[in-house]
Write a structure and sequence with these properties.
The structure is a homodimer of 438-residue chains.
Chain A lengths: L1 E8 L3 H12 L1 H8 L1 E9 L16 E2 L2 H5 L6 E4 L5 H12 L3 E4 L2 H18 L3 E2 L10 H6 L7 E7 L2 H13 L3 H10 L8 H4 L2 H15 L9 E2 L7 H10 L1 E12 L8 E13 L11 E8 L3 E8 L3 H20 L15 E3 L6 E10 L5 H10 L5 E6 L9 E7 L2 E2 H13 L3 E10 L3
Parallel strand pairs in A: 1-2, 1-4, 2-3, 4-5, 5-6, 8-10, 10-13, 10-18
Antiparallel strand pairs in A: 7-9, 7-11, 9-10, 11-12, 14-16, 14-17, 14-18, 15-16
Helix pairs in contact in A: 1-12, 4-5, 5-10, 7-8
Chain lengths: 438, 438
């Protein structure tokens, strides 16, 4: 039986999952492939560290060179994380004609261009199903299944940590500090949760997805990014009252070109959003991930599954290894093209985004306040869809007043809020949550 | 630019969709492929019939031979439907070394074995993404993304017509005749809706899916199949009362081998089922389709989208054409293997299925009836999870009594029902709906 050799760099949680799956399903995989996948090298930082999954000591090394210079390694699996060292490893592999599998969204978001350019030059493949949404086959679907279609919008719950926290807040009414601590205790959130709760992780993933879905070329800094730490239990109560669920969404949406013509414009943003309570995305609970696509021919579609964890992420890595092995056996590397070398869409200015908005004001309980806010919104052509004011018995505290607007331009809305927040009857900064119909 | 020629046989709704997509997205497709897809032949039954999508008259023919004998046609797209004539066409194509795309689940369910055998012998590819769930990329996902994993269960809403009818019944409380007539009026159901409402269409699709997901070799007649025509508005009311939604499900589930050892056993069934009201599948409304998979590494995952219609189905056909074109350009046909030649699982006897059940009895309002039914169930080790009896003021009519059981063996349950239905205090046959936790 033919053999294809792989080398694994980084042997943490995902590496252990990859090794387990390759072992446990070896028979099935061989039957499907007509070939055997053999792990030739495993690079670790510390050879003495005890590991959940056993590895033959003879394969283990601490030197990337041992993997790069091994002629029996045809595929390098990068699982070390981070950007610079991972980039050097991936570049070294490609320069030696090896194919690459990576689960590293940070690397792809920051240096994907250089990687894909080099892959084109060297005629090697770079697969990265595990970089976004763990085991959910969103990369493969964008790259292959939807090759016949034109995607117009993408809405995703792509960060399991924040979805776990928001689900707990919605279902138990917990403040965010409590929900976050519970997520940390259960291993869903890191000790330093900043990358997740800031929306930064989701923004990295959105960059990777938008490149495949729209031919965009974005850096995480290009994405309008708002995290979840400002959300309060009352936002969830209001969401329910208006028939919404509250989720951290990654959104990319194509709009027709601006007046200057040329490329289509693409909105790219990550922020908490109200979505209809009856929508499928609203039913995505806990640490699960899902991506809804809208495309010309297919209409709406959704992929759903576990976005993290040793086995789900490991299964995505192994799918890529199998796919690359098929390419190697069929001598067809480059069969599915890499993302386009030049951007096919341009970023839409965040100011120009058009959304409906939920606005929560903290205002003094004096006559004329609602009239003033309504006229400040109206003067900027922001039209009101719904208003709710709850009674406030606690004298001196701000009155909770909530307004849901029709679709408005982000710049107009921000200007109106700035004006409202300058008024002496406004006691607390106005909170804004965008509303998406997914 | 290189060209790959295709021939389309059958130019109805889907054929028009395929042609529209190939035209509308020609630029995108060429950019992605580095090659042009050219329609060389279109076979129709009646060349004079007016069509929604224009075709160059020079391409149109009524003779399959014109397509089969055209050396410029590398891929034959079979959209004529039916079994025997479609089989002859597909065989003719493969014998001439042409690859095949088909949207024909009836053909695959009835004669898939012969087709895959011939494809193996001739070294050609057979792609059929459009045969199941229209544009939802379930075939590709089973064949490629989950190649690294071991699927344990599949639950699908794979028939849009029946899901449209059941959604209307659930949301409007309509009797099935009214919901069906509305579905016919809107074009979701055929004039003769038998294939859909009997579950037969879903059973065909389940055969195709089970082959890829489990290596099963099933004919539609092997599938335990119950349709929706016996459902009544009160079943939906009871579903709501117990916290369920009522859907027509296609289910395939792997269980460990029987005592005789050997192959794993596979349950294969299509029937109305109660599923938890909060589950994602319960949120699949109208004519939409969805498939939930459970697999070892990935855990639960779901794909969702439009299962029918010119453009969704057309987009799946065009994805297959693009994939085959990639194989042709990379000279790698057979890159993704066909389904296995021998079955990897054996059918589990329907008697041996284990489920929880909802039972609706129509019994006389006399003392001791509940006690008798409970003891008849208990004598067959069927344990009761919940009971509800509503008041019946209409004298002489059966009392509506509903029992939800814990998991029980189908054979035991059927024996108990047969005994209960023989009793003179039973006025109407007992209705049974299986309960699935998806």
């Amino acid at each position: 039986m033919r053999e294809v050799g792989i080398g694994i760099a980084g042997f943490g949680v995902v590496g252990g999952g990859v090794m387990s799956i390759l072992r446990r399903h070896a028979g099935d995989i061989e039957a499907r492939l007509g070939a055997r996948i053999v792990v030739r090298r495993v690079v670790v930082r510390d050879t003495e560290k005890p590991r959940a999954v056993d590895v033959d000591r003879a394969l283990v090394t601490t030197r990337f060179e041992d993997l790069l210079e091994d002629p029996q390694v045809a595929v390098v699996v990068e699982l070390i994380g981070g950007v610079d060292q991972a980039f050097e490893l991936v570049r070294g592999a490609m320069e030696r004609g090896k194919h690459v599998v990576t689960a590293n969204k940070a690397l792809l978001a920051a240096r994907g261009d250089e990687i894909f350019k080099l892959a084109r030059e060297r005629g090697v493949d770079v697969y990265y199903e595990a970089a976004v949404c763990g085991g959910v086959p969103i990369i493969r679907t964008l790259r292959e299944a939807l090759a016949s279609d034109r995607i117009t919008a993408l809405h995703g719950i792509v960060n399991g940590t924040t979805n776990f926290i928001l689900t707990a807040m919605a279902e138990k009414g917990e403040p965010i500090e409590v929900a976050l601590a519970e997520a940390q205790r259960l291993g869903y959130a890191e000790t330093d949760p900043t990358l997740d709760v800031s929306g930064g992780d989701a923004a990295q993933k959105l960059c990777v997805l938008a490149q495949l879905a729209f031919g965009a070329r974005l850096m995480p800094a290009d994405v309008l990014t708002e995290g979840i730490m400002g959300l309060q239990p009352e936002d969830f109560r209001w969401a329910r009252e208006f028939g919404y669920a509250l989720k951290l969404l990654a959104v990319a949406r194509r709009s027709s070109p601006g007046e200057e013509g040329g490329l289509d414009r693409l909105e790219a943003r990550v922020h908490p959003a109200f979505i209809p309570a009856g929508s499928l995305l609203a039913g995505v609970r806990g640490a699960m991930n899902a991506v809804v696509l809208h495309s010309d021919a297919l209409g709406p579609s959704m992929l759903y599954g576990q976005g993290a964890g040793a086995m789900p992420t490991g299964s995505a890595v192994v799918s890529d290894i199998i796919d690359l092995t098929r390419n190697i056996l069929a001598e067809s590397p480059g069969r599915v093209p890499l993302p386009p070398a030049r951007p096919l869409v341009a970023l839409r200015r965040h100011d120009e985004i058009r959304c409906a908005y939920y606005l929560r004001f903290g205002v003094k309980d004096t006559p004329g306040v609602l009239a003033r806010i309504a006229s400040q919104l109206a003067s900027r052509r922001i039209s009101i869809a719904a208003v709710q004011q709850h009674e406030q018995n606690d004298e001196g505290k701000p009155v909770p007043l909530v307004i849901v607007t029709h679709v408005a331009r982000e710049a107009d809305l921000r200007a109106a809020i700035a004006e409202i927040d300058r008024d002496p009857t406004t006691l607390a900064p106005t909170r804004l949550i965008r509303i998406e119909s997914v």
